[in-house]
Amino acid sequence: MQGDVRHSQYGLEHHGISNLSAVHWNLPTPALYEHVVRRQEGLVSHLGPIVVSTGHHTGRSPNDKFIVREPSSEGKTWWGKANQPFARDKFEGLYRRLLAYLQMKELYVQDCYAGADPAYRLPIRVITETAWHSLFARTMFARLEKTKAAEHVPEFTVLNVPRFQAAPELDETNSEAFIILNFEKKMVLIGGTAYAGEIKKAIFSVMNFLLPQARVLSMHCSANVGAGGDVAIFFGLSGTGKTTLSADPQRGLIGDDEHGWSDRGVFNFEGGCYAKVIRLSPQAEPQIYECTRRFGTLLENVVVDAEKRVVNLDDDSLTENTRAAYPLTHIDNCVRDGMGGHPKNIIMLTCDAFGVLPPISKLTAAQAMYHFLSGYTAKVAGTERGMGKEPQATFSTCFGAPFMTLNPSVYAELLGEKMSQHQADCWLLNTGWTGGPYGVGRRISIAYTRAMVRAALSGQLAAVKCEPDPIFNVLVPTECPDVPAEVLKPRGQWPDPAAYDAKARELAERFTRNFAQFDTAPAEVRAAGLRT
User: Fold this and answer.
1) pLDDT of 167-182, one tens digit each?
2) How many other C-beta atoms are found inside a 10 Å radius of the C-beta of residue 202?
3) What are phi and psi of 491, to 5 degrees?
4) What sections of 221-265 are H helices per DSSP?
5) Of 39, 159, 334, 503, whose Cβ has the fewest other Cβ atoms within 10 Å?
6) Could you give the residue range(s) of every CATH 3.90.228.20 domain in the chain?
7) Residues 351, 202, 213, CA angle at the centre, nearest 5°?
8) Active-site residues: which are they?
9) CATH number for the domain running over 217-270+337-527
């Protein structure tokens, strides 16, 4: 069998896969480039990134994620819209058809890890039918040491087969696309969609199931560390600034999206970054911008001139959700071992489309748990399939509801426990609109946002006098270095204060209605809510 040099003694027969035309094990990045070009899956652009298209699936498919209902995980899973149950027999039937589809196909295998901390890392295997998805997996997860390859036994396997489509009437899926987690078989099946983000988020969902049971808080956040060793984490959904704000030249980048918080400190789940790059600015986001101009970066749905091979980061004709996957080591000041101490500051990012939340406010521990459970933001166009152009107000618990496989209370209690134990300060940072709602007001200046983050992380804001917001019940600093005082008070930024009051009350009522689902939250957390 061509290319059958097994870098692991644990072969594909353990997954029921056999009778293939070729298997490519753990190919390095340059070799994967050659395969992508030879197979016409993508093309090499100016300065070295490889550019691919995912077809009409240009974002996650949230309605197509399922978890197999089986005894080992059934009682722990947070069933609902984010984690839909899938029958064991339907999984077996789909898997058998998928294995038949793979007969005489060419497959790519990447053996790697999720989790930088050796005490908590998860050995994984990603099997793909395309070379570019293998490159994505190699980029996004922690790579094996060469001496460890032969003995690698995956504890979870992702089988990513974009060209295989489900038959909804037979398989009881919601569409031709599917992302199915099976904790009994320790396997994820992905098909009917080429969007690479499904691979990383599937493993994130697995980590969110396993780690909290070991008293490790799994978090949808970025993390960085200052020269003095002070760690900051940034919670937030896609489009809120998680990647942009953590990529600070003055601080070391631990990671941009997924982390664990153990008794030893914070650790990255990934070995790469997966950043939105639409209209990326070399002035506002210089580090990420430079990554879009380097060999080893995978550009997803970025428009490229096929003749000149020059990419256009401003072109959204394919999607708003253009992405770059690049190794963490592309960031000059990255923390190479992916680990840091306990966070000194926690920043919860929200992109407020109503234009009424303060740009920055300080939260008590109870308020931090309230806003963590609420997870308010506005989804930005293109991040998920079927979204229109305008941002949509949403509440995504733990700032990542689609990936939280356990009950949200598990994560919230762990957060409160760790904040108390390590005396971390918490800030709510609004990167959305001011002076009016979306379509009327303006986006808060990123220069001001960066100044607020600097002041919070340096400790300057902690010493500033704060005033309670009469509606949102948070503590708003009266001043901040390099930020005009009036910017800190959103009501004064509106031309009509009465219109602000009405819109603020409207958002506060949405918070209250949403939080009603958490009726078992501690009394002090429920009392930390908004005044409607």
Assistant:
1) 999 999 999 999 999 9
2) 22
3) -60, -40
4) 242-246
5) 39
6) 217-270+337-527
7) 90
8) 60, 201, 220, 238, 242-243, 257, 323
9) 3.90.228.20
DSSP code of 490? H
Q: What is the mean pLDDT of residues 264-286?
A: 94
Report whether 221 contacts 190 (CB < 8 A). no
Is the predicted pLDDT of residue 2 greater than 80, yes or no?
A: no
Beta bridge partners of 234: 222, 347
End-to-end CA distance of the chain: 68
All CATH 3.40.449.10 domain ranges of the chain, comma separated, are 12-40+61-194
Task: pLDDT band for 3, please (50, 70, 90 cuts).
Answer: very low
Confidence category of residue 389, pLDDT binned at 50, 70, 90: low
Distance CA 482, CA 259 (A): 31
Distance CA 342, CA 260 (A): 11
Among residues 340, 509, 524, 348, the alpha carbon closest in space to that of 425 is found at: 348
β-pairing, 22-25 with 106-114?
Answer: parallel
CB burial of 24-47 (b: ≥16 within 10 Å; e: otherwise) equals: bbbbeeeebbebbeeeebbebbee
Reference 227, options 248, 258, 255, 257; nearest CA is: 248
Give how far the C-alpha of residue 201 lies from the chain's centroid of Cα atoms, to the nearest Å: 7
Superfamily of domain 12-40+61-194: Phosphoenolpyruvate Carboxykinase, domain 1 (3.40.449.10)
Question: pLDDT by residue (tens digit) across 429-449?
Answer: 999 999 999 889 999 999 999
